[in-house]
Each structure stands twice: as C-alpha cells, then as structure tokens.
Design brief:
The complex is a heterotrimer of chains A (150), B (757) and C (263).
Chain A (H helix, E strand, L loop, with lengths): L1 E6 L2 E6 L6 H7 L18 E4 L2 E4 L12 E3 L5 H14 L8 H14 L5 H8 L10 H14 L1
Parallel strand pairs in A: 1-5
Antiparallel strand pairs in A: 1-2, 3-4, 3-5
Helix pairs in contact in A: 2-3, 2-5
Chain B lengths: L12 H5 L6 H4 L6 E7 L5 E7 L1 H5 L3 E5 L30 E2 L5 E7 L2 H10 L1 E6 L35 E9 L2 H6 L3 E9 L11 E6 L5 E5 L4 H12 L6 E4 L17 H10 L3 E4 L2 H6 L6 E10 L5 E13 L5 H10 L10 E10 L13 H19 L3 H8 L20 H12 L1 H4 L2 E3 L4 E11 L9 E8 L5 E4 L9 H13 L6 E4 L17 H28 L7 E2 L3 E4 L2 E4 H9 L8 E7 L7 E11 L5 E11 L6 H21 L29 E5 L22 H13 L10 H9 L2
Parallel strand pairs in B: 1-12, 10-11, 14-15, 19-20, 26-27
Antiparallel strand pairs in B: 1-5, 2-4, 2-6, 3-5, 7-15, 8-13, 9-10, 9-12, 13-14, 16-17, 17-25, 18-19, 18-24, 21-22, 22-23, 25-26
Helix pairs in contact in B: 6-7, 9-10, 10-18, 14-15, 17-18
Chain C lengths: L2 E7 L3 H10 L3 E4 L11 E7 L8 E3 L3 E5 L4 H5 L2 H4 L5 H4 L7 H4 L4 H7 L6 H7 L3 E4 L3 E4 H5 L8 E7 L2 E9 L9 E8 L2 E7 L6 E2 L1 H7 L6 H14 L10 H17 L4
Parallel strand pairs in C: 1-3, 2-3
Antiparallel strand pairs in C: 4-5, 5-8, 6-7, 6-8, 9-10, 10-11, 11-12
Helix pairs in contact in C: 9-10, 10-11
Classes of the chains: A alpha+beta (150), B alpha+beta (757), C alpha+beta (263).
Chain lengths: 150, 757, 263
C-alpha cells in the first residue's frame, strides 16, 4: 500500500506492506537512527514522534500514519546535538544504541512538561530502557539540559 | 596530566546520540542480501531421525537449506578465547542431536524474510525424543547424557562427558580441614545464583559477502573479531587470510558477544552460495538461543576465631553450563580465583566443584565472569558470620581483607601491589551513613529500611595470556592514527586509548584519530573481555606512543642535523640548538621524497599479573513488610580502579554495573518450564531494571597506584557487577531478619519468608 | 511485520461490524500492541481511525471514552484526573512507558479482556459499560465473561457515581505486569471490590462487598474484609508469582485500598 505522510516536515509517500510497522519502513527509507530492540513494545529504542508526541514506531502500523506527522531525530539534529553535549558530559550515552530514542523522548518532554518533578521525569522516561548506564547518568544529563534549555 | 583522570567526552558520543549510522545493521545496506532464518528444536533433548527439506528447497526464493546432512561435522567451540581455547570442542555447525530447546535444526536462506519463514515451516523433522537433564543438582552421573561423544579439549579441564561434567576443578591452599579444627567458629551455608541474560540493547547480528578479492567479508556486532575469524576459519575449512572481519559500533555486549553465536550461519551460507547474506536475531532468539550467565550453587564454609579473624575460606560449587561448554571451565575457575584472595590472610582456602552439562541454553561469558556468583556466596557468608559473631560487618572486612604486600596463591603475580579497599569501605560507610543507620531504620509499621554491604575484586586482563598490540602512524600533516582492536562496545576504549596516546605524545586529542574496526588493518588484540581494554591495550598504546616519540626525535635529529640529546619535543615542535621544526613540517617531510621515512610505531603488552580492582558496595533497601517488595532506595559504590583514566567513563561503568547487579539481586531470572522451554524469552517476562526501579546510585573513587598499570590504572568493566546482590540480601536481612540465599530476592520470597517466620 | 492481506479504513462502525461478521480471519486493528505478537494471519484488517472514536466526553451523569482513545490520552486527560480520585489515570503509570501508551487504545484493551490488565479492574469497579455496535450497551462485567467476541467496541461509558476509588497493585519491577492488582470503589454507599491479575481475569469479590454493606470502615473491618476477599477468590501460579503469594498479598492490598496507608 501507499501511505501519504510527513516525515521531518517533508511530505513523503511510503510504500509498504499492509502489516509493516513504521520502524521497519523508516529504516528502509534511510532513517537509520530508528533502532529496534525488543519485538514486544517494551524497550523504547524506536521512539519517534507521532504528531509531536513520543510513540513506539515498532508498534505503529505504517498504514496508521496516513496524514500524520512523523519526526525522527534526523529532523532534530540541532536540538539533538545540544542535548548530546549534556549526555557526553556525563558519559551517559555508552553504547549509544538506545540514545536516539531516549533523546527523542527527552526533547518531547521538554515541550510537554514545564518544570517537571523528578517523579514526573521518571514516569515520562520510564519506557526508555538502557542496559549500559544504570540511568542515573542519563538523568543527570537530562536534568542539566532542562535547566539550561527547558 | 592533560587528559588522564579528566572527564573526557567519548570521541564518538555526540554522533551516537544524534543517531548517526554506526552499527552493523546501519552499514548493511545491501538490499539483495539473503535473509537467514533458523529452524530450532522444540525439544530439550532429541535425536533427528529424519529431516525432509525438499519442499523448502523447491520453494521460489529459497537459495540455501542447510542441515546436519549437508554441512561439515567438524567440532569446535564458539568461546571468544585465545588459542588454544580452554573450552571443549563440543558443538558442530548443525547436528542430528538436539541438546536444548532452541538448538539449531536447519538454516534457511531466502530472498526475503517472509519466504525464509515460510520455508522453515515446510521442513519436516522426525525426532526421537529423549529424556532431558534439566536440573543442575542431579546432572552429575545422571543416566541421561547431554553429550554422548567425548569432546576434544586443548587442556585437561576435567571434562567427563559420561558424567555430564564439562569441567572439574579442585584447588586447596593450605590444609582446610586441619585449620577448620582449630577455629572457634565455623559457619556453613548454601547459596544459589540464577542465570542472567546480557540483555544488551542490540540483538546479535552479522552479515556476510564475498569481496572483489574473493574473500569472505563478515561484518558483526562482536567483542572478539580475531577469535571470530579463527573460529570461522576452522568451521569453513578455509585459511584465515580468506576472511575479512569488520566490527562496527556495538549496541552493548556485556560478554554475550564474547561468544560467536551467530557469525557462522551467514558465513557458511555466503561461502556456499557466494551471495551476500545476513542474520539478525530476534529478541526471543537473543534471550533463548545464545548464552547467559552460569547459574550456580554454592556451599561456603568460613572458619574464624572469636575475634573474627578469618582462618578458613572453603567454597564448593556447581555450575550449570547448559548444552555446550563455552567458558565452562574458565568461568568456574574465575569464581574461586577472584574471590579467595579477598580474604587472602586466611590460613587455608579451597575452591572446588564441577561445571555440568544440562539440556538448557548454553551459559557463557557475562560481566563478572563467575566472580559475580562467587561474590554473592562468599560475601553473604561473611555477613552471616558477622551476625553470628556480633561484629559490625564493615569491621569484619577491615580486619580480614588482603592488603598491599600480602600474597595469595590465587593472586596472579602472587603479591598485591595496589589496593585502596580499606579506604573504599571507610568512604562508603560515610556516604551511606552506616554508623547512624546500620542495621535498619523503621519508617512505619509496614516500611523498614535495611542496610547491607559487600566487597569484591576482579582482575585486569588475563595474566600470562592476554596480549595486545597497538600501532601509531604519523600522517602527512602531523596528526596521528591510533590503530588497535580493543573492540569498543560502548565502554569507551577508543576514547580512553586516544587519551593515553595524546597524553604521551603531548598533542590535542583531536590530533589522534582512531581505527579499530577492520581486522585487515588493526594489529592483534584478544578483544573486549576480561576487563582488559585500558590495562592490556592501554599499556600497548603507551609503548607505541613512547616508540613514536623516540622516532620523532630520531628523525628530527637527522633532518635538523642536531644531536638527538639536544632536542626537545613539546607536542608541537621539536627544537634544540636554535633550530626547530614543527610536527606538521616534520611529518610532511618524512612522508615525502625528502624524508622517505613515514613514522609508524608499535607497542605490545602482555601482563604477568592481573591486578585486581576493588569495590565496596553499600545498599539501602526499603522493604514493604506487607507485600515483600524490596526497593534499593540508595546504593553507594566506592571503587579502586587504580588511577581513574576517564572519570566520566569510569563512573558510568560503575553506575551501570551496579544497576545490572541490582537487576541480578531483585528482578532478573532466567526461568525454564518443566519441559525445558525458556519462559523468560522477552522483555515482558525477563525484567531488566527500568528507570523506575533505580532510585539512587552514588559512586566515588578511591585511587591507588598500580605499578604495572597504564598511569597506575586497573580495570573497572566487570568488578562493578558484583556487590549489589550480597549487599541487598544483607540489607533485606537487616530489615526483616530473613537471609535470602537464592537470587533473585522477589517480593514473594520475602513475604512468604516473613509469614512462615 | 504482521500478516494483513487487506487493509480497510472503514467509514462507520456498522461497516466494521459487517466485515468482522462476514469475512473469516478479519480483525479490528486497535493499537496492535498485542495483536502484533500473536503471529496470526489477518485476512482483512479493519482500521477505525477515521471514525473520530478518540474523544473523551463528560456529560451530567457519565464520562464517555471513545474506543480509539489512547491510554496516554486517558492518563493526561483533565476530566479523568478530576474524577474517580484520578484512579483511571494512575493505573496507567506502570504500563511500560508513554510511547506504548500513546499507541495502544482503550478499545483494544477492553476487547482483549487481558487478565493482566491494570485498567480493566478499575473500569469494572467504576461500573463501566461498553457500547457495542451489534449488542448495544452492555456492562463491562458481562463483556468480560467472553460474550460478544465478534462485535465492535465503540466506546466505554463510566457513571460518575463513584465517590471514593482506590487502586493498589504489587509488582516486582515497576514496569512489569502486576503480580496482583485490586480496586475498591464506593458508590451510593456500596463497595465494589475487584481483583485482577490473579493471574486469571479480574473478578468482583461479592462476599466482601456484601460484608462491607452498611459497615463503618475501621482497621479491623478492613482487615476482616481483606481476608474475606483472599478466601472467596481463587488464585493461580505464573512466572510472576504463586497462588499462595497472591492470596497473601491480596490481604495487604485490599486492606490498604480500604483504609489507605502505604502505597
């Protein structure tokens, strides 16, 4: 099938199988920042924005994004780099495989929540698993980032 | 120091966060690759009587169907270890004997995933179903055998397949029984540690193709590219020179990718078909068809006098290596080797037991490599001993830990040359508020906070074996290329090694670029395991950088016509006797006709010792008395990794390792059904700690100066995993009065324990 | 990738109902959070997203939630935060993460009748009804019994009568499924007590409800009521916990739900 959508502000027509999920389609179209880690909607690696809100692209049928706006970190490079400086200042990216999805959730949270409490941050970010960092370094990075850019 | 001990961002960090392509699948852009899928055994123990692949082979789009009938039956190990490997050669590419649920029956390569999956469904297999060995404790001398043929071994590892024993180990230092008789107090306790999944975020994957030189190109997410090449050479029966390995960035490894679980499948398919192919394991395959941590069972005997001086440490163990013996002997050995020296002042110590075969997924290497399991047993017993004597457990440690200058037969190099463990304990006590809060603080009728501790050690590389070479090349513009193969999997070895090179060469870090991904280019390195990156390869880089500096002075002397001893190098210029040449100019000249001498320096290091890093870990655990739920509300870890080379990277390793240890202590468990099928084969059933589960991890470093280490450094990668399980169990005891001796400590174990108390 | 032979964006619920009941192997596509794992071949995938079923509407007596409303939209909805002690929002917190919750739908959750659900026990305790295209309005409790399998869930209607609602659960990792969850809701002086993830599907503890009728809640009454629940319901084993543990922890959770106390 053909799906008319917008990716990173550009109108695109995705050709896909009826049952193909967005994560796979995005990678096919060269949006290689989108990683997959679990097959069960559990890890948050494939987080993109659906109309500005974080969504798992591995659970989202490509057919469902007809007429919707998709954002990947390829479309957020400047802001991602700003945040990346805070991540590397803590060493919190480690293997980096979960970082793009994590960053997309952080950047969405910055827009959605004003002056979030620690608990609100944890709740918002809970869906992004990381096996390397133990999370506390990521939290330091994102709190410092919010202080400066929030 | 310009770079050593500083918070240096990782050289690849910014781009990784921005999502820049870096991993195997990102570079695997060949749209015509065959997709490989594997038919797996539904039975834990079975023999294939008949297998019919005719329908699959006839299917349009299917290029290759492999079974035990049409592939080599050569035996090998997939363990990532230096040759000759101390693991039994007990597996073949495809066999007619199925040894666990998930064992490979047939390999199908087709033009796309759907076709491959469809083809797999058409393969008809007739099995003779055999009685499986599923219980670690009854495996030895069980009438059912996991392996009926004697595996080849390179060393005497005590393999006795007729008894389901993959490896036997016995080592006694002093006379344990005689010393026990002299003790005032002996405690004997049993402990169990579960299997653990690596759960790295990037699943296993590899691609294969044939290049223009007719060589087999493998791109793999691996910690051990050189060992992969050696294994593939043996399996395919082709010279290593015919194989090129590319190792892009890894999405985590944790020891999982120290076993070559997947590379042989695309390698064989592509070598036979001459077409590109790839395999990407699903998360389910990653959980259930690769390797895990060895589940172990321990009996610990500690003997002491009334004052708490430990006289005897005696540990017997049983380790579950599953269907194949990758890392069976070495993990088993390390379990004792990296725990007994902790209390090396004891008069006698012993470690012994078996690693046994069962019909479960093979165990393998996982961060901590046995020391994690051994630490839970030994440190739990130490805490129980402290409680019996009525002594502060921190005091008990300070009284008994090995100190600088002490020797122990299990200490590589015999004598401990650096340790700040005593300071780690003191600092940790202060940070957690031990003197005020230990043993417990009662918050309400239903909430109690208990406090617990543990100490641990590991090694830095494998003494007498691990040997790495690093190469430095001065390029035509006076910048350097550092070429090595320490296999960065996120820990940041590329960064730490560049720091070391830049420190010695006295240049900006961005004047040193790093190449570590292509085996055709890089010098030999065993790979990323045994906590060896900074210690082993780092020492090699120091040698290479010193050699480079020497060459710079030599060549500058020749070009400037000034005696070498009059020259000084400051990172930018070589000057002396009123003459000076910039590094840029020197490099250009040396690369050109004028100098005809481009500088290439190498350094090699292999250590006689494996200096132990130490950690003291302190847990604050809040127990809900009504539900049994335990939460680690605070964890303090103080590490002695010698000199901290990069504080950012060391800290995140420490924090991440503690979180992984909390997972082992509270959440993670590899569970099998009664019929031998792994139940916990997804992130829905196998729970690694989430952000919600990690409340607070606080860390500190107490430096020591390791004379054999690069700038005094020791390792940090594995030791970080070991303290949480025993420290948490100790805290739970102090909150509830229950000693939980089998991991993980679930709400159920705590509540049911409280009810039956 | 799911195996969907034909994909149809329907223009009405009745069209969906028609297809569902005439085409073998057809299925309604909710958020697909679970459907994708079932590995089933779907002959005709029915997409309801053009029907505007993602509204949360407050009337004088009820709150209506369209079937295609995402769990995340429920969690962040001001109306729902201000009703039922926020319990319907709070019970979302442990469901994996917001990225999943912004995709999975309440219709999919209800139609799936998932026994491990944290949401369904809350809806049951609130006395929610389900509006189906074929069968019309039925109580969620009846729906949970397994009837109406080939019907289209259009919306959920929750009466605003509940005065006090408390939701309690126990889980090991906080993003894991509950080992047990419990909800109590007080409406017109009567308690509804619901226990889910036993691990069988959520069920009302009617003996306990009868016991509580007309009683003033004290620590002792709550303790007794909690024991009644543990005795009247059956519990089972799964990878997360044994029947014995569930029975034991049920007492704690119900008691805490009734009289407040530790989370």
């Amino acid at each position: 099938m053909k799906v008319d959508t917008s990716i990173n502000g550009r109108a695109m027509t995705l050709e896909c199988e009826n049952g193909e999920f967005l994560a796979g389609a995005l990678r096919r179209y060269g949006f290689l920042s989108v990683k997959e880690g679990c097959d069960t909607g559990s890890c948050g690696l494939c987080t993109i924005w659906l109309n500005g809100k974080p969504a798992l692209s591995c659970c989202l049928l490509t057919a469902r994004v007809e007429g919707q706006e998709i954002t990947t970190i390829e479309g957020m490079q400047e802001e991602a780099e700003e945040f990346a400086h805070f991540m590397v200042a803590e060493g919190a990216e480690q293997c980096g495989f979960c970082s793009p999805g994590f960053a997309m959730t952080v950047l969405a949270m910055k827009r959605e929540l004003t002056n979030p409490t620690d608990d609100e941050v944890k709740n918002y970010m809970a869906g992004n698993l990381c096996r390397c960092s133990g999370y506390v370094g990521q939290t330091r990075a994102l709190m410092k980032y919010l202080e400066v850019h929030g | 120091m310009r770079y050593i001990g500083k918070k240096i961002p990782k050289v690849d960090g910014i781009e990784l966060v921005k999502g820049t392509p870096a991993y195997t699948s990102d570079f695997d852009t060949n749209n015509n690759s065959l997709i490989i899928k594997i038919l797996r055994s539904p039975h834990p123990s079975a023999k294939i009587i008949d297998i019919d692949t005719t329908e699959a082979e006839a299917m349009g789009g299917v290029e290759c169907v492999l079974t035990h009938k049409n592939v080599t039956d050569i035996k090998f190990t997939l363990a990532g270890q230096s040759y000759p490997e101390p693991s039994p050669y007990d597996r073949s590419l495809l066999s007619d004997t199925m040894r666990y649920v998930g064992d490979e029956v047939a390999v199908v390569a087709a033009v796309d995933e759907q076709t491959a999956l469809k083809a797999i469904k058409t393969i008809n297999v007739k099995y003779e179903i055999l009685e499986p060995v599923l219980d670690l404790e009854t495996a030895v001398d069980n009438s059912n055998l996991v392996h009926t043929q004697e595996p080849h071994v390179n060393f005497d590892i005590g393999c006795d397949h007729k008894r389901n024993i993959a490896s036997t180990f016995y080592k006694e230092n002093g006379d344990v029984e005689a010393e026990l008789k002299k003790c005032d107090l002996i405690i004997e306790r049993s402990y169990k540690t579960q299997a653990q999944a690596h759960a790295m975020m990037e699943t296993y994957r590899a691609t294969a193709s044939i290049d223009v030189n007719g060589r087999l190109n493998i791109m793999s997410s691996t910690q051990i590219p050189f060992h992969v090449r050696r294994h593939l050479s043996r399996i395919l029966g082709i010279p290593k020179s015919k194989i090129k390995i590319i190792k892009p960035r890894l999405g985590g490894g944790f020891g999982g990718k120290q076993t070559a679980s997947v590379e042989m499948f695309p390698a064989m398919v592509t070598w036979l078909t001459k077409k590109p192919s790839k395999i990407v394991y699903t998360r389910q395959e990653t959980f259930s068809c690769t390797t895990s941590r060895h589940a172990m069972k321990f009996t610990v005997r500690l003997g002491s006098d009334k004052q708490g001086n430990i006289k005897v440490v005696d540990i017997s163990a049983l380790s579950d290596t599953g269907a194949y013996g990758e890392h069976a002997a070495t993990v088993f050995f390390v379990t004792g080797h990296k725990t007994l020296p902790l209390y090396g002042r004891a008069n006698a110590s012993r470690y012994h037991g078996y690693a046994v075969y069962t019909n479960k997924m093979p165990a393998g290497a996982l961060r901590g490599y046995g020391a994690t399991q051994g630490t839970f047993a030994l440190e739990s017993a130490m805490n129980e001993l402290a409680s019996e004597i009525g002594m502060d457990p921190a005091e008990l440690r300070l009284k008994n830990i090995i100190r600088v200058g002490d020797s122990h037969p299990d200490l590589d190099g015999n004598i401990l040359q650096s340790s700040a463990l005593d300071r780690c304990i003191e600092t940790g006590k202060e940070m957690i508020g031990w003197d005020e809060k230990y043993p417990a603080v009662f918050l309400s009728d239903s909430k109690v906070r208990g406090y617990g501790m543990a100490v641990t050690m590991q090694g830095s590389g494998i003494a007498g074996i691990d040997t790495a070479t690093a190469v430095l090349k001065m390029n035509d513009d006076g910048f350097f290329t550092l070429i090595h193969s320490a296999s960065d999997m996120g820990q940041g070895s590329d960064t730490a090694l560049v720091q070391i090179a830049a420190e010695i060469l006295d240049v900006d870090m961005d004047r040193v670029i790093v190449v570590s991904n292509d085996l055709d280019t890089v010098p030999y390195d065993p790979g990323a395991y045994a906590s060896s990156g900074v210690y082993v390869t780092g020492n090699a880089v120091i040698e290479a950088a010193k050699e480079m500096k020497k060459q710079i002075l030599e060549t500058a002397s020749r070009l400037l016509n000034v005696e070498e001893k009059e020259l000084e190098y400051d990172g930018g210029n070589v000057s002396g006797a009123d003459k000076s040449i910039s590094l840029d100019e020197l490099a250009q000249k040396l690369c050109s006709f004028e100098g005809k001498d481009q500088l290439i320096a190498k350094g090699t290091f292999g250590g006689d010792t494996s200096p132990p890093p130490f950690i003291a870990g302190f847990a604050e655990v809040e127990v809900d008395i009504g539900t049994g739920k335990c939460e680690v509300t605070d964890f303090v870890a103080v590490a002695d990794c010698g000199t901290v080379i990069n504080e950012n990277l060391a800290r995140i390793q420490l924090e991440g390792g503690i979180a992984m240890g909390i997972g082992l202590g509270l959440y993670e468990d590899v569970v099998y059904s009664k019929t031998g099928r792994m139940v916990t084969d997804s992130f829905m059933t196998y729970k690694i700690p989430s952000r919600m589960d990690i409340a607070n991890i606080r860390t500190a470093f107490e430096s020591s100066d390791e004379p054999t280490g690069p700038f005094g450094a020791k390792s940090i990668g594995e030791v970080v995993n070991n303290t949480p399980p025993p420290a948490i169990a100790h805290a739970v005891y102090n909150a509830t009065g229950l000693w939980i001796t089998d991991l993980p400590i679930t709400p159920e174990k705590v509540l049911m324990g409280l009810i039956s108390k | 990738m799911m195996n969907i032979e034909e994909y149809v964006r329907v223009s009405s619920c009745s069209e969906a109902y028609e297809i569902l009941n005439s085409v073998n192997g057809s299925a309604i596509l909710g958020g697909c959070g679970y459907l994708r794992m079932g590995n089933r071949a779907i002959s005709k995938g029915i997409d309801l997203s053009l029907l505007g079923l993602n509204q949360i509407i407050e009337t004088d007596s009820d709150i209506e939630i369209g079937a295609m409303t995402s769990l995340r939209d429920i969690e962040t909805n001001p109306i729902l935060k201000n009703n039922f002690n926020g319990s319907l929002c709070d019970c979302m917190e442990n469901i994996v993460g917001i990225q999943l919750r912004s995709i999975v739908t309440i219709g999919g959750t209800v139609a799936g009748r998932y026994p491990f659900s944290d949401v369904l026990p809350v809806l049951m305790a609130l006395g929610a009804d389900v509006v189906l295209t074929g069968a019309g309005r039925v109580s969620l409790e009846d729906f949970m019994d397994g009837k109406h399998k080939s019907d289209v869930v259009e919306k959920i209607i929750i009466p605003k009568t509940s005065e006090r609602v408390a939701y309690k659960s126990v889980r090991n990792s906080l993003v894991d499924y509950a080992i047990l969850n419990c909800v109590i809701a007080l409406s017109d002086g009567e308690y509804k007590v619901v226990v889910g993830a036993r691990p069988q599907k959520a069920i009302r503890a009617t003996k306990c409800e009868a016991f509580l009728k007309g009683k003033e809640l004290t620590e002792e009454i709550a303790e007794e009521a909690a024991k009644i629940v543990a005795d009247e319901l059956s519990f089972g084993d799964n990878v997360r916990g044994s029947a014995e543990y569930r029975k034991a922890v049920c007492v704690t959770l119900i008691k805490r739900a009734l009289v407040g106390g530790a989370e």
